[in-house]
Amino acid sequence: MRILTGNDLKTGAVIWWTGRGWSIHVEDAADVGEHGEAILAAEDGARRVNGGYIINADETPKGPRPAHIKDRIRALGPTVRPDLSLKPADPAAGEWVI
Does some domain include residue 8? Predict the structure, then answer.
């Protein structure tokens, strides 16, 4: 599975391509297959994403899970303040990163 990520130009938030737009939740990410470069070119040209790139992910029952720890950390949010992460009430959030 291949998914797209980058940063929102207005807020700087980590965002994920959903197939129709961008979401701050990695669970919404869609598999882009071999179309990732074309989608990134269009989205970059429309100034909807900054620093977009393609990553590998594993399909899980809860949605895509980035294969690389760097992108799992980006998906979760700050590791030094779990209360500020995107899943502050999830006691297993830290296990998801590792």
Answer: yes
Q: Where are the alpha helices (DSSP H) in the chain?
A: 36-45, 69-76, 93-97
Strands (E), the chain: 2-7, 14-17, 22-23, 50-60, 63-66
Q: Assess if residue 6 is contained within a domain.
A: yes
Q: What is the pTM of this model?
A: 0.85
Q: How many domains does the chain contain in total?
A: 1
Q: ∠ CA(43), CA(73), CA(29), 5° rounding?
A: 40
Is the pLDDT confidence value at 91 over 80?
A: no
Find tokens 């297959």 and name the residue: 33
The single-letter DSSP state of residue 84 is G
